[in-house]
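Dock fe (ii) ion; give full complex structure.
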Amino acid sequence: MPQNSFVLPEAFSIPTMPAVANRISTMLQDPNVGLREVAAVVAQDAPLAAKVLKIANSSFYGLRERCMSTQQAASILGIKVLKNVVLQAAVIRQFDHLKGSGIDLNDLWRHAIVTAQTCAFLTQRAQRKILISAEEAYVCGLLHDLGQVVMIDNLKDFYVKVMKRAKSEHIPLFLAEQQALGFTHADVGGRVATMWGLPQTVVHAITLHHGPDAEAAREPVVSLILCTNLLVERVSAGNAAAASGLFATPIARPLGINSEVETAAIEFVAGALKAVEI
Ligand SMILES: [Fe+2]
Ligand SMILES: [Fe+2]
């Protein structure tokens, strides 16, 4: 795997993993820690617990009964899924202070969550082995563009202008970033994932989610994130026609997604974009 050797500006700060998500990660490594203890940690933070229950009760998890407590959520969803639900709620909260920065953060989170959900959806339906679990695929999707949020936080108006320029000139954001800064949100996202101790496959997939395409054509996890990002972008832009056929191209070869699954995924994304709760 290639090393990511770009240089960040001095004083550029990479956020730490939200404390509660970090604590749960550590707890999960201890075989003596059970559901009860993990759920109790989440319950101690009332606003976070409320958010976690809202996500757990959203249509994505399709629970038959409504969770009323984090204990119940932990036992119905399982610890690994609960960990992701906590991560999602905590990451979004960690950047609440950026509301009003001139960028629609909800748009960004909507894209991240739907990409996460679609990565999990496709992992469960791919005909080839993707090498990661649906839960890990969810994390990749959730965090793939986190570099953008970290760049808004660090570079403020300068970065907001880069984003606006990319939009008005119809150039991909990562190219505008490369021109203006010499590194991209994919580079920054990879650095965040490294600092958070995420598995190397996750780091690699986040770093390469805008290419080069040759990496996607070779590595299933890179292919999954790169293709799912494109799929979600195209369906979000109302361009389902451009989304169809994506999984027959070389960048999607390592996945083995047939046309029926692709059609189902396009419908899934359209539904998820409407249903997502932030
Ligand atoms: Fe991106
Ligand atoms: Fe993206």
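Observed: Residues 18-94 form one domain.
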